[in-house]
Specification:
Largest sheet of chain A: 3 strands, antiparallel
Oligomer: homodimer
Number of strands of chain A: 3
Order of helices and strands of chain A: HEHHEEHHHHH
Distance between the termini of chain A: 45 Å
Strand order of the largest sheet of chain A: 1-3-2
Chain lengths: ~190, ~190
DNA sequence: CGCCCCATGTAAGACGTTACATGATTGA
DNA sequence: TCAATCATGTAACGTCTTACATGGGGCG
């Protein structure tokens, strides 16, 4: 009942919240967009959908359309929406930054539809706050290894640092966008 | 005999080429550096080492040190070095860019020690060449989704684009470093 | 009729995660 | 002697990958 949901599971949940779809539709979305990272293979998607259904996060309903083969369309249940929102609004931790940013960006990407623009803004601020100490830490690591590591090792670390700096700049840019958008709405 | 080597396997191979170590040493390296992403759990590292040994990539030798418990130090075999170099010098494909850059950066990080600075430079140029078309492609995707996606979805894609742009800048910077270094040596 | 697209799935195998087990040594 | 650290592993479990299976429908 209370099993963990994989990143693929959350990707599916978020997409289904945007639009009820069949497994085949979802597969096409994955394979045709930048979300290809979440596997476009049926051997991953169909079992993941069944797991979500077993946990009560989504419900599938067979569509009998004239002629064509049966097609099962999945919809997010109220319970699934609660879980999706909970996951999206999780505070951004240090681990979220180091263990690949895919999950965080996925959460952000779904945030506006699933929770609202103020939530998106909150995520961005949380990210900005988490990035500062992380960048300091990486800077220290660089100083540590500078004398001993080969150039290529040092440059590899510098590449990581730059990418986090770019993320920081992006988050500020995104914050400004949302602040403008929200101010416009309230006025 | 000819099984695929996982990313963790290559990480271990590269580290062992830098310095023969025990499983425990490797674990400490993983857990104390930015390479934590490659799992610091014994349940992953020890089986991976055994696989590498089975494939003839590394060889372990038990060190009998006064008093302390037996400690198995692994060394890269000639065959392992051939495989490591082959993997490092693989041309950088479009898939390498989309499926997380961890592998490419790992290859680059090991390149100087395992193959030489000219190889590192070659990798960087290959990366720069692969990045240009990829960035164009992402730009098109952005134009496609701009009218339909919510702000958060669009911003998430922009974040990806920025990170590749930052990677492109880094690769140019790294190329200039290597070019200077190699010119200095040859003169 | 044969072929390709829709749409769903299953089976085998590899890998990683978590948690536990073991045993020896060092230090309080 | 008790705990912590060194050092190596195993077992259970879940998930992903790859490849194959199935079966209807449209089309030339």
């Amino acid at each position: 009942m209370n099993a963990e949901i994989s990143s693929l599971g959350y990707a599916l949940l978020g997409l289904l919240h945007g639009k009820p779809s069949s497994g085949y539709d979802l597969r096409k979305i994955f394979s045709s967009t930048a979300m290809r990272t979440y596997s476009d293979s049926p051997g991953a998607i169909y079992p993941a959908l069944r797991r979500l259904e077993r946990e009560g996060m989504i419900r599938g309903s067979v569509e009998e359309r004239s002629g064509l083969r049966r097609r099962q369309v999945f919809r997010v249940t109220p319970r699934g929406l609660v879980e999706l929102r909970r996951w999206i609004m999780l505070p951004i931790t240090h681990d979220d930054l180091t263990s690949g940013l895919k999950m965080v960006m996925l959460r952000f990407a779904f945030s506006e539809n699933a929770v609202g623009a103020t939530a998106s803004l909150e995520i961005l601020r949380s990210m900005e706050a988490a990035l500062r100490p992380h960048l300091r830490e990486l800077g220290q690591k660089l100083e540590e290894i500078r004398p001993v590591a080969p150039t290529s090792g040092r440059l590899a670390l510098e590449c990581g640092i730059r990418s986090y700096e770019s993320l920081l700049q992006w988050s500020r840019y995104a914050i400004s966008i949302y602040e403008k958008q929200l101010k416009g709405e309230s006025s």
